[in-house]
Amino acid sequence: MNSAIELLAPRYDIAWYPWAVQYFFMIALSYATLWLASPALIFGKPTWLPTARLALLACLTTTLVAPVALLADLHQPLRFWHFYAYSNTHSWMSVGSLILPLYVVGVIVMAWLAWRPALQANRQAPGIAGLVARWLSLGDSPTPRALLVTVGLGTLVLSTGIMLYTGAEVAIVKARPLWHTVWLPPMFVATGFIAAAGLLMVLNRVSGLRDGSVTRQMLKVMLGACLMAGLVAASWFLDGINATVGSVSAAIESVRGSAEWRSTALWGGFTGVALLGSVLYLLTRPTAQRPALYAWAWVLGLVALHVGWMFRWVVLMDVQTVARHSAGFHHYGIPAGSSGILGIVGTFGLWLTAILLVELFVPWRQARQGGIATDPLPASPAAANRAGGNAANNIEGTPRHG
């Protein structure tokens, strides 16, 4: 007599919604743009000043929006205080709940110190712009540059903690072989810098600055980040095909039979190679051809943003469709409500709102390396053009909307 045993495995709903993708994307843009602003704002390199202006704008706005997406992904946002009432030093999420508020405060203070001289010069402007400048500048006393440098260095240290905890809190999950690998945190960082460089190229275009030095510097940053991401991806893959045990080999085995995952890998590989090739092409063109080509570099910026966001979508959302207790894959359809499309669009809308508010009330285009209001301008006309695009950009307190 034959007997059969039927095994039933429950299907669990996904734990992380698209809010998590938005948080990981926004916080990556935040710490990467902070590092891109630091050469001028912290270390005083005037050639990086145009880039630093855009990077600081991007850093502050993404830093303000990222925690909103994180709170939404907690499912019960009002219970965030549990992180502090019941702290757990063995949990990366608990550690992150301590680092993140300090980092947010550090970015806000650093931006205020960098923008304060321009706000002070704008105190006599008519209307609400002058009122906001008088309120935000907090008096007319000088702003010590040493204070900006100190706060900036401290915030950079905190940003490394953000890089570590955002990668580790995913990589520590042993139940998901596609997450449980040492290669995931550096890949988060590399794709974050790719997306941040792309964002600055897009902002350089839409803000009206259109500074060629920003495009050139961001193409170089993007090249280095693409090479780093390619090296990590190659090491990740070789680790998987050569190891008979371990999370990487288990991860590859879990998606080996999925046509959808194969198409995702092909698309990611093709996009990465195309982006790298396009960046190399632009950087190696003769000097006379660069202005015309750089005018279209913002398109590469959009592709770079796509790479950074899609990598986090695949890691955080698609991985959750892989069944843990049975064979096969679960289908996930993006809902239209706040836990899906509306949440994604709403997060980007909130970020655009933050951008517009800064654009309206803060003369960020006139920010210099920070410090006292008498910081010197670049000495040569060519350096002045690179620093602001034209002479009007280098006059503190003169807003220009382009």
Topology overview:
Layout: H1 18-41, H2 49-73, H3 82-85, H4 92-121, H5 127-137, H6 145-171, H7 184-206, H8 212-242, H9 247-254, H10 259-283, H11 290-294, H12 297-316, H13 341-361, H14 381-388
Helix pairs in contact: 1-2, 1-6, 1-7, 1-12, 2-4, 2-7, 2-13, 4-5, 4-6, 6-7, 7-8, 7-12, 8-9, 8-10, 10-12
Can you tag this structure with a few keywords?
402 residues, mainly alpha, 14 helices
Describe this structure in words.
With 402 residues, the protein is an all-alpha fold. Helices cover 65% and strands 0% of the residues. The protein contains 14 helices and no strands. The chain has helices at 18-41, 49-73, 82-85, 92-121, 127-137, 145-171, 184-206, 212-242, 247-254, 259-283, 290-294, 297-316, 341-361, 381-388. Helix 8 packs across helix 9. The longest helix is centred in the middle third of the chain and has 31 residues, at 212-242. It is globular and about 90 Å long.
